[in-house]
């Protein structure tokens, strides 16, 4: 079999996802044809498919420098270069292929490559060459896109912005150009960016703008441009026309309300020169219309009247299924008017739409304690009245309870919340049978009772900030053992995770069900990562860190793909969104914490020195990049926290925009401060680099010994002396004006270990004081005065594992490693005894949280045997005892 046939067979196996067989066939073929380009391209592709992007990138870049022409080999090489983000090599490959393949197609691929790498100036140049050669108008659109991508987001007079405007007007939006909705919208956007609102209005009225899409889309854009141009009456008339045509369109109502300016306040010049009608021209009747500007409204009272007229139209058009738009708009307008009719209209809205799942969310913005109480009374009166539909009764009752609890500005006296909590639990228990016929994946019909009960528990817990009532958290968490369909209700899952976190526990099953993925590793750490760390669910922590690192490592590829897709769809606002997203991810607070976290969690699987060295070898570049980013002055302020707080706010009953909901959210979802996170990451990184340097010195000395054994005499000594010095990082961390801070468990030994490392292992520094400091620190973790395991748990992870790695690498011949190991083992044994005897409380332990719960608060937490919370605590203790036992075994191995 020749090389080409072997390569074809291997590529077919790869396409069939039979990677194992492809690897075997490749190994056999390379023995016969070690220099064949197709086989080497297949090798790079297999390496990438196996997840080793670093090695695949190196192989592909090397191959790109060779004159590969076979189609399958070229396709494989291009695929690997794209996925490994080797843009310069890919561009060079396309340039080389131009004379050999379809030049136009290759040139277009080159444009896409420059787009994916963000080199928009090169995109502009390449698109210009393509247009000169082929006169295809789509290349002019590419030129516009490339120029706009180079314009800063806040610029209004950039030269490329002006050039793009002229090119769109004179070439793209003509009969010979490329008039499609995206190019029309782009022209409106660039005019608005430059403040040329009058020009945008004239364009939107012209026939060329008809291709922007549906007439409603055009009218909405026209209303916005008129508003920005200061022609508020005309803008209001257009928005009124649009809202009257589609009363459920909230965007048009928003513009309509925002342009309700009293006639006396409108500029006299505008009033005199304003046209009485606006004519929108177009090639087809459905694209044309005329708006009477004299129909503009100027007061909220007129708007309320219009809303009621639209309600009447809605009732006549859809007598059996009313849409909420005009009714909700009326509430919004009355709220702005501070009308005394508000309470009656809210009750009317509730009576009409209480069956809608969104009903509470609709009215939550307008609820006052008085209105909420009236809704609650309405729900109780309906429940008392005879009704054939039991589900209907419960639906009203749940809405009333939501309104009542959500309107609490202060938590009532202890009796009322307790009674309501019990009422909700009893009502849920009595209504469970109504959901028996539902599919297993659906939420129960009366799950709202439990949601209200959880909100009551949260409010009662957070009522006293100085002495929170943990008993309500326990009761709320214990509810999870008596409800049906727990895993189908995201709100319950979030409450279970957060309540457990506040109690120092981890609800692993709920977190597994929430199953955060991809970008959620960056945005949902407050509900995902920190609760795992609080309860020391280290296997799950390791999985989170691994998946987060995978997400961040593929970010360059993913963002490049986003750039290309948005570029092809010709959407300038979307391109700006991609640029903002990429900036937010590049400067993400969690992104730069991830390398240290991921290495630390990888230590859970490292049993030997070799394991630690291999782990450091593949991660040291990322760790150093993280240190450089986090050591920048004011790093805590320059990093972006991408946490999605809207998700957390949405589970709290109340006006989502209010200070009360914000305070309750802060009490429910507790996250260490930004400064604490940055400081912890720096301590972790500096300690990891100390591990790295000990490993590097150890390898250096082993290499020197091997070199001295291989030869004898002076030449051997010369080889040993001339051996390359290891790359060390600890000496590069600090500055003369700022000392390096290590983890508290590592800090006592840092000076001794640094002295040993700086001398490349030649010096045996005096370590008595370091040994005493370490012993003092370890004893403080298990002091008799400690009522809680909190201090020890902070030490256990990540500090104990970093300390274990240091002791693996430290030379027992020159440093008192055995004594250090004995002190650590003694601490671990004391802790294990306390956990097993339950003389320590594993509840309300904190991670980076201040203030720490008092002994009295912790002791007041009572768990019923076999309760849901008690089981979570038992699981936590069992996990910790397992980790402690494992560390003791490792420490025993060092002491031998």
Automatic annotation (TrEMBL):
| Keyword Transferase recorded | yes
Quote the Pfam families the UniProt record gives. Answer: NatB_MDM20
Q: Which Gene3D superfamilies match?
A: 1.25.40.1040
Q: Which GO terms describe its cellular component?
A: NatB complex
Which superkingdom?
Answer: Eukaryota
Q: Which GO terms describe its molecular function?
A: transferase activity
- On whether Membrane is a keyword of this UniProt record, the answer is no
Q: Which family does it belong to?
A: Belongs to the MDM20/NAA25 family.
| Name this protein carries in UniProt | N-acetyltransferase_B_complex_(NatB )_non_catalytic_subunit_-_putative
Q: Which organism is it from?
A: Leishmania infantum
């Amino acid at each position: 079999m020749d090389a080409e046939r072997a390569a074809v067979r291997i590529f077919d196996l790869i396409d069939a996802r039979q990677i194992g067989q492809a690897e075997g066939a490749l190994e056999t073929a390379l023995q016969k044809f070690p220099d064949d380009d197709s086989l080497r391209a297949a090798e790079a592709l297999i390496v990438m498919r196996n997840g080793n992007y670093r090695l695949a990138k190196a192989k592909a870049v090397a191959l790109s420098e060779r004159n590969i022409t076979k189609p399958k080999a070229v396709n494989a090489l291009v695929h690997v270069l794209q996925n490994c983000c080797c843009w310069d090599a890919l561009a060079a490959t396309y340039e080389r292929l131009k004379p050999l393949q379809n030049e136009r197609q290759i040139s277009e691929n080159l444009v896409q490559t420059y787009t994916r790498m963000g080199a928009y100036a090169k995109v502009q140049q390449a698109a210009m060459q393509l247009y000169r050669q082929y006169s295809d108008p789509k290349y002019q659109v590419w030129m516009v896109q490339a120029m706009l991508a180079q314009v800063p987001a806040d610029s209004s007079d950039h030269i490329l912005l002006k050039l793009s405007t002229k090119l769109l007007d004179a070439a793209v939006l003509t009969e010979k150009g490329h008039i499609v909705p995206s190019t029309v919208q782009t022209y409106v956007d660039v005019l608005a960016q430059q403040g040329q609102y009058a020009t945008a209005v004239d364009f939107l009225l012209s026939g060329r703008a008809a291709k922007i899409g549906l007439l409603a889309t055009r009218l909405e854009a026209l209303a916005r441009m008129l508003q920005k141009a200061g022609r508020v009456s005309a803008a209001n008339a257009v928005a009124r026309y649009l809202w009257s045509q589609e009363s459920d369109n909230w965007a048009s109502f928003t513009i309509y309300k925002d342009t309700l300016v009293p006639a006396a306040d409108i500029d006299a010049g505008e009033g005199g020169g304003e046209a009485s009608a606006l004519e929108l021209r177009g090639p087809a009747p459905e694209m044309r219309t005329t708006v009477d500007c004299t129909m503009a409204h100027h007061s909220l009272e007129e708007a309320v009247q219009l809303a009621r007229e639209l309600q009447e139209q809605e009732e006549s058009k859809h007598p059996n299924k009313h849409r909420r738009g005009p009714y909700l708009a009326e509430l919004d307008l009355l709220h702005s008017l501070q009308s005394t009719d508000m309470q009656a209209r809210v009750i009317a809205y509730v009576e009409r739409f209480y069956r809608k799942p969104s009903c509470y969310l609709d009215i939550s913005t307008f609820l006052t304690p008085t209105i909420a109480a009236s809704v609650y009374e309405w729900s109780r009166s309906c429940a008392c009245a005879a009704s054939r539909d039991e589900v209907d009764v419960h639906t009203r009752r749940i809405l009333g309870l939501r309104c009542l609890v959500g309107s609490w500005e202060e938590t009532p006296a202890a009796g009322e919340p307790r009674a309501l909590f019990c009422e909700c639990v009893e009502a849920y228990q009595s209504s469970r049978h109504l959901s028996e016929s539902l599919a297993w994946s659906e939420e129960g019909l009366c799950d709202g009772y439990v949601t209200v009960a959880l909100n009551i528990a949260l409010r009662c817990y957070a009522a006293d900030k100085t002495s929170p009532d943990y008993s309500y958290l326990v009761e709320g968490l214990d509810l999870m053992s008596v409800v049906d369909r727990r895993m189908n209700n995201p709100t319950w899952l979030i409450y279970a995770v957060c309540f457990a976190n506040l109690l120092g526990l981890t609800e692993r099953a709920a977190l597994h069900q929430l199953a955060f993925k991809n970008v959620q590793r960056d945005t949902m750490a407050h509900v995902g990562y920190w609760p795992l760390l609080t309860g020391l669910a280290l296997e799950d922590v390791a999985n989170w860190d691994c998946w987060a690192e995978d997400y961040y490592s593929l970010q360059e590829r993913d963002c490049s793909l986003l750039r290309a897709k948005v570029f092809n769809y010709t959407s300038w606002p979307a391109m700006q969104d991609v640029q903002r997203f990429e900036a937010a991810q590049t400067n993400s607070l969690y992104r730069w914490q991830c390398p240290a976290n991921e290495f630390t969690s990888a230590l859970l699987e490292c049993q030997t020195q070799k394991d630690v060295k291999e782990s450091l070898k593949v991660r040291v570049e990322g760790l150093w990049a993280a240190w450089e980013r986090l050591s920048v002055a004011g790093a805590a302020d320059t990093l972006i926290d991408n946490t999605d707080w809207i998700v957390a706010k949405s589970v709290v009953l109340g006006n989502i925009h209010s200070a009360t909901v914000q305070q309750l959210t802060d009490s429910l979802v507790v996250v260490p401060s930004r400064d604490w996170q940055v400081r912890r990451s720096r301590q972790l990184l500096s300690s990891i680099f100390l591990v790295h340097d000990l490993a590097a010195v150890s390898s250096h000395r082993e290499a020197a010994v091997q070199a001295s054994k291989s030869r004898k005499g002076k030449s051997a000594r010369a080889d040993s002396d001339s051996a390359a010095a290891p790359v060390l990082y600890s000496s590069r961390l600090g500055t003369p004006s700022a000392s390096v801070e290590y983890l508290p468990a590592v800090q006592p030994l840092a000076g001794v270990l640094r002295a040993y490392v700086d001398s490349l292992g030649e010096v045996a520094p005096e370590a008595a004081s370091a040994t005493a400091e370490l012993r003092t620190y370890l004893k403080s973790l298990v002091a008799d005065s400690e009522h809680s395991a909190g201090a020890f748990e902070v030490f256990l992870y990540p500090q104990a594992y970093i300390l274990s790695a240091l002791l693996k690498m430290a030379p027992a011949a020159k440093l008192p490693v055995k004594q250090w190991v004995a002190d650590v083992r003694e601490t671990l044994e004391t802790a294990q005894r306390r956990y097993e005897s339950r003389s320590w409380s594993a509840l309300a332990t904190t991670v980076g949280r201040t203030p720490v719960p008092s002994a009295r608060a912790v002791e007041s937490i009572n768990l019923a045997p076999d309760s849901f919370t008690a089981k979570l605590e038992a699981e936590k203790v069992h996990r910790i005892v397992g980790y402690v036992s494992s560390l003791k075994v490792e420490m025993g191995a060092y002491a031998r």
